[in-house]
Amino acid sequence: MTTPNKFQGWSAHMKKAIFLIMILALIGISGCIDDDSKEPIGGETDEHGCLGSAGYLWCDAKQKCLRTWEEPCPGMVFNFKECAALGYPVMESYPRQCRTPEGKTFVETVENPLQGPALEAAEKYAKNMKPYTEENGRDLKINSVVQQKCPGCWIVYLQYDLDLGKPTDVYTNDRMTVTITLSNWEAVDAVSGRGGVVVLSPEECVAKGGRTLNVVGGNSCGIEETNIGDVKGFISPNICCMPSEEPEKLTLAEAIEIAKNSECTEKGLLGDIYVYNENTKTWWIDLDMNEEFEQDYCNPACVVDEKTKTAEINWRCTGLIARAT
Length: 325
Fold this sequence. Notes:
Low-confidence stretches: 31-41, 167-171, 320-325
Number of strands: 16
Largest sheet: 7 strands, mixed
CATH class of the domain at 115-200: Alpha Beta
Helix content: 10-25%
C-alpha cells in the first residue's frame, strides 16, 4: 500500500510559491541576527578587545569596538579642530598642537597659498638627493615648514626612509632627516642626518616592555611614552610605544628664557616666528639682528638646545653672491 503524498493534486505554480515563501522566511530570520555580535578575529587586540589592525577603535560613548568610517563615535577626536573645540590643551608651537587626555596629539593645518610651491620645491630636491635615488628612498614626509621674511624664502624639515632590505625579524632601516632652505623658491642649502629605524615583531615589542599601537586616525604614543620603532605583521601601520625615561619637552616659554640670557639677545631681538625640531630636540626662534651684526644673505635664528639648556645663533646663510652692477 502506498503512502499518500500530501502534495498530490497541488499545481506546479502552488508548489513553487510555497518554496519561495520558505526561502524568504529563512532570509528574514538571518536578517534579525545583530551584526554587533560579530567579533573581529585575527591579530593583536587592545585592552578593550578591539582589533586595531582591522581599523577597530574603542568607543566610550557606545561601549563597543567600531570602525569610525562605518559608524561615528560621539566625542572621538580625529583632528586639531575637534580637539581644541573640546577644550583640550593647545601647545605653543607652530603649527599649534592639541593633546587629548589619552596622549594623542593633533597638529593644526595652517592654510597658506604660498606653502604649496615651497613644499613641491623641497620634495623635488629631496627626491633627487643621492641617498634617496641610490638607496631605495621611500615614505617621504614633511615634518614642518617655516616661512621666512624674504620673498620665496622657506625652511622645510623632511624625512624619508632608506630600505636596507635586511631579512632578519628585527631589522633597521636608515632614516634621513633633511633641512632644506629655499630662497626665491629654489633650494640653496640642505643639511641632512642619518639614523636607524628599528622594525619589530609584536612579540619583540612586548618583550621590551612596550605596547603596539595602531596609528590609523592620528594615534600617537602617550605623553610619558617613546616610539621605539615600527611594528610589522599588521594590515595597517603600527608602532611600539615604550614608557619614556626622558624629561618632559622644553616649553617655548622656557626656551625664550634661555635665549634671553644668551648671545642671541646680546646681538639682536627675538622674533615671533618659532618652530620646534623633533629630530634635533631644539627650538628655533627667529632673530632680528642689531644693525652692526647683520650679515648679507643670512636669516639668523636663535637655537635653544633642549638637552644642554643653552642657546646659540644659527646664521642660516644662503651663500649667494651679489651680482656686480
